[in-house]
Amino acid sequence: MLRNQLEAYLLKAFSVHYDIETRESEYPLRALCAFHSRDSQYVLVHSVELWAAEHHEYLYLYSVEHLDLKTLEQIWQQLLSDGAPRVKPHAQHMYTYLTAIVLYDSADAEALSALKKLKQRREFKLSLHGWMESRIAAVDVSTAALTTNRAAKVLTRDFGGLVRRAISQCKERENKP
Question: Of 49, 68, 133, 161, which residue is 20 to 30 A from 76 by alpha carbon distance?
Fold first, then answer.
């Protein structure tokens, strides 16, 4: 129950910046959130562009009752197989992040240990056409504990705070008569 409430809370929070496609039929994937940004500098008119940089993120929201090695491997493979074709490197491409957020009620210790070691980074034309990096974070909905791989460490502060706030609000709602 708490996992479903947290999922709804996160989707509402993500809807401010992301385009969201819900995926109810593709268990354990619940939603695909896409973010696209383009920054540029020009002189006098838009046609005289000095530079431009495009940033993309595809966030996959997963929800599972129990996270084990098999489920983790399935999630990681789906992230890479679905996300990698979405990366379109070109001269103005800076980066694309493929991010998996996994909400779980319980998890095997070896699955969380394996999650910390997952990595996938690809540079295009010596990074002149940008790079792609895969990040994964798993959230224990009962304790709000966040486990991430190395690339996703940057999510710990902001996303961790969002998750803790969301879980405390959901628990408060459950305790109200």
Answer: 161
Segment 159-174, tens digit of pLDDT:
989 999 988 888 787 7
Residues in the chain: 177
Q: In degrees rounded to 5, what are phi and psi of residue 168?
A: -65, -40
CA of 46: how far to CAs of 36, 56, 129, in Å? Answer: 20, 22, 22
Residue 84 · residue 123 · CB < 8 Å = no
Neighbours of 54 (CB within 10 A): 19
Q: What is the C-alpha separation between 137 and 150, in angstroms, rounded?
A: 10
Are 146 and 7 in contact, with CB atoms under 8 Å apart? no
Q: Identify the CA nearest to 136 among candidates 94, 85, 74, 88.
A: 74
Q: What residue spans define the domains of the chain?
A: 2-175
